[in-house]
Amino acid sequence: MTQEWPSFARKLAEVLAELGPDQLLVLSDPATTRFVQFVAQGADGIRAEISSNASLPPGDRLSRAQAAELVSAGWEKPAEAPKPSAPETAPDGSPDFFIDFPAPVEVARISEQTIAALAGVLRIPRPEMLEYAAFDAEGRAIDFSGLGIRRIEKRQQINPGRISRRLLVCLRKFTGIADLDYDEDGDIGLIFDNVSMFIRILGSPPAVRLYAPLVHGARESRGLLSRLNELNSGFGSMHFFILNRTIGAVAEIPAAPLRYEVLAQTMNHFCSVADGVHKQLNEEFGRRRSYLKTPKSTMVH
After folding, report:
1. In the 3-class helix/strand/coil scheme, how is 208-234 assigned residue by residue?
2. 256 CB neighbour count, 10 Å cutoff
3. What global pTM score does this model have?
4. Is 209 strand, coil or helix?
């Protein structure tokens, strides 16, 4: 380990101490797609994650020896694809190597363990070779120039292929469907509980959109619009609308970076609410149920 690392470890500890709830810090190696990221979780402490082979292209993947070194050093193995779970039993794992550091957070310990992985396992010669990006829950960039390394702007960090691969990895883990894949339109189709849904990446900055057509053949009316307004005031970032006589539900979460925990929580909430709301709207305004015509995968929840 070169002499620059101890100094960087102190700087990293100072920045981690400043990281607020739901803020994210990513340290990346520009020569590869490998990264270390830190997610501040308030009273639950900080989660640190190191990219696993599930989200890395072939040329950047870790060797078996490197993976074993991480596990020996205390990093949890990437989680295998679990069975679908309800919100109260949502899995606590990650598709990446991870450590959960409980509150009160010992930032010096997190920093030391991270530096050991960066320098000793990932074989990054000097900290100046790293780049960083930091964001809050709304995707706004945060300046941590005290790290002394180059900051990546959000628009420069986006890699569409990597985002698409990570979404697929996370959804395969969440659903337990190993062969889940994109269709020719770029959607991932699922039947979850009684809800048919499509998941895709869109926009700039990119977002993961969940869309469920709930009721076909509905007629727009003052009563329906009033009902949708009522629903839209009660479910936060989840929204209901009518377009071309179809009542639908949508929700979006940031795709860069994409956090498995956020995706899993959003999926569970979205499907639970959509299923209940569908039944109500179908009785009040609908004519026939909406289903995926030819779903590539089916998830029974």
Report:
1. EEEEEEEEECCCCCHHHHHHHHHHHCC
2. 23
3. 0.53
4. strand
